[in-house]
Design brief:
By secondary structure, this protein is of the alpha/beta class. The chain folds into 3 domains: 161 residues, Rossmann fold (3-Layer(aba) Sandwich); 174 residues, 3-Layer(aba) Sandwich (Rossmann fold), CATH 3.40.50; 86 residues, K homology (KH) domain (GMP Synthetase, Chain A, domain 3, 2-Layer Sandwich), CATH 3.30.300. The chain contains 12 helices and 15 strands. Strands 2-3-1-4-5-6 form a 6-stranded mixed β-sheet, with helices on both faces. Strands 8-9-7-10-11-12 form a 6-stranded mixed β-sheet, sandwiched between helices. Strand 14, helix 12 and strand 15 form a beta-alpha-beta unit. The two termini are 50 Å apart.
Length: 450
């Protein structure tokens, strides 16, 4: 299916229910919501389906008076960019508060755009509030919709208005260009706070798509950004920084953001673990990689901020990373700097390669030769028990991730170290760079297996 050709931006001041409306219209809890102003920061995209039309819905942070705070400035910039690229603007206000001075200032800004607009009067939870909307006519937006995003009242009628308005806009339909055959790779970008995750994606895009600052947890909602690289569709997911949360911590934002970050790891094909190479690695870095391996994701370890390192000895740092992440020696390490834009193209090529490795198929004949060579070099070692293991065969049982089954005689136990020896030989022979390999052991009493 071709990508949606329309975009609808949701804008308004803080705490009028924009993210709640966004989640309601896409029927998914994609945006983190709370009663605290400034919860949403980056603009958040999702595909919305209604009747026979698909369109992108864009959630934005609360706009307001000019602020000296760098993050608030970037939030407003993000919302302005969303309006600039939108085909339709939903200007959201709060019926319980009425048309505030801030609403009137923002309405003037919205009305400067020639783009069609709908005034969405939110939090209309009962008939009493339906009678209190006369004040909003002063904002100068003729098309209005009364809704309650929290319970869904009026949102169907709003979507009908949106579809009707979009169908009046003449736009060229996007060409499919064989999109059904384009490979889609979902990549989660994770790491501790302030290691440069959002900066990495901005560098890849060549534009300030995501808000960045020196403050921890600048990113809250996970953001999906789609790019194309060598005819591959890559979905980059920027996530909030993951760190160990204290049980006494009252930061609900952080807890929700970390949960969302881990959920994106679980849904990804490949994970990029971003680290700050100028600082020592931590237990939290190991914990993140452990989550990745449990989900059988592909993995790239990114040593960012290489420009801050004085003694640029890649061999020394590679050994340090390999020793620290001893259980993930198969993961490639990329030394980069988002400031200097080092090895960004190499990183994208590596994503495509790892995706291919996850789907690699090894023939039975090739595996039989590998097994014979492995046994000739080092005979199987037994684990617990007295019976010496005899290996009948080695076969691949699945891809994505690669999984293999090794069949041995019934009463024997194969030592774990020998399975690792087989895995290392497989990696040396066939590659599987950046991909976890699972080898299961099955026991057989069938003489035909010999």
């Amino acid at each position: 299916m071709a990508a949606p050709i329309y975009k609808v931006a949701i804008v308004g001041r803080a705490n009028v229910g924009k993210s709640t409306l966004f989640n309601r219209l896409i029927s998914e809890k994609k945006a983190i919501i709370s009663d605290i102003a400034g919860t949403t920061r980056d603009r958040n995209y999702a595909v919305c389906h209604w009747r026979d039309l698909e369109f992108y819905l864009i959630d934005t942070g609360g706009m307001g008076e000019k602020s000296k705070d760098i993050i608030n400035q970037q939030v407003s910039t993000q919302a302005i960019q969303a309006m600039a690229e939108a085909d339709l603007i939903l200007f959201v206000v709060d019926v319980r508060v009425g048309a505030t001075t801030e609403d009137r200032i923002l309405a003037k800004s919205v009305n400067r755009h020639k783009t069609p607009k709908i005034l969405v009067i939110n939090k209309v939870d009962n008939n009493r509030w339906r009678q209190n909307n006369d004040d909003f006519y002063r904002l100068g937006l003729e098309n209005q919709a009364l809704v309650s995003a929290a319970n869904g009242v009026g949102t169907g009628d709003l979507l009908d208005q949106v579809v009707t308005a979009l169908k009046k806009i003449k736009k060229k339909k996007s060409k499919k260009n064989g999109e059904e055959n384009i490979r889609t790779i979902k990549v989660s970008v994770v790491g501790r706070p302030n290691v440069g995750k959002s900066s990495l994606i901005n560098t890849i895009l060549g534009e300030p798509r995501l808000i960045v600052s020196d403050q921890p947890h600048t990113t809250r909602d996970s953001q999906e950004i789609i790019i194309t690289h060598n005819k591959n569709k890559i979905i980059l997911v920027d996530t909030a920084g993951i760190r160990r949360c204290s049980k006494k911590s009252g930061d609900d934002f952080e807890k929700m953001a970390v949960e969302q970050s881990l959920e994106n790891v679980w849904r990804s094909d490949i994970t990029i673990l971003v680290t700050d190479v100028s600082e020592p690695l931590t237990w939290q870095d190991k914990h993140i990689i452990d989550e990745v391996i449990q989900q059988h994701n592909g993995l790239i370890i990114l040593a960012n901020k290489w420009d801050l390192v004085k003694n640029k000895d890649t061999k020394e740092y590679t050994n340090y990373y390999r020793e620290f992440f001893g259980f993930a020696r198969w993961a490639p390490i990329v030394f980069t700097s988002t400031v200097k834009k080092l090895k960004i193209g190499e990183l994208l090529d590596l994503l495509v390669l790892i995706y291919q490795e996850k789907h690699r198929v090894i023939t039975d004949n090739a595996l039989s030769k590998l097994l014979a060579d492995t046994i000739r070099r080092h005979k199987p070692t037994k684990g617990a028990g007295t019976k010496h293991p005899y290996i009948y065969n080695l076969k691949q049982t699945r891809t994505n991730p690669p999984e293999f089954m090794i069949k041995i005689n019934f009463k024997a136990i194969l030592h774990e170290s020998y399975l690792k020896f087989i895995e290392n030989n497989m990696r040396y022979k066939f590659g599987f760079i950046g991909v976890p390999i699972k080898i299961r052991v099955a026991k057989s009493q069938n003489l035909q297996d010999k």
